[in-house]
Amino acid sequence: MMAGRGKKGGVVAYICHGAWVPISAGIVKGKRATHLYAEVVKDGNLISSRIPEDLPAFCRTIISALE
User: How far apart are CA 44 and CA 53, in angstroms?
Assistant: First the structure.
């Protein structure tokens, strides 16, 4: 899942296997991303999450970033 306009300063959000796209695009290099112990990580305009069970925290973080 990806959302936003990362290049224009919007939010780029990805969860689970969706991380393959921003990693392949090179926009994750040098940024923090989610890992085994963090359900959601926000680094600038990038928001990442691990698994579907993390959706409540993931969605709250996206909404907060868009406000």
Answer: 23
Distance CA 12, CA 26 (A): 13
In a domain, 1, yes or no: no
- Its domain, for residue 14, covers 6-66
Report field, pTM of the whole predicted structure over 0.70: yes
Which 3-state string (H, E, C) describes the chain?
Answer: CCCCCHHHCCCEEEEHHHHHHHHHHCCCCCCCCCECCECEEEECCEEEECCHHHHHHHHHHHHHHHC
Catalytic residues: 17
Count: domains in the chain: 1
Return averaged pLDDT per consecutive 10 residues of the chain, 67 residues in all: 56 91 90 91 94 95 93
| 16, two tokens | 């689970």
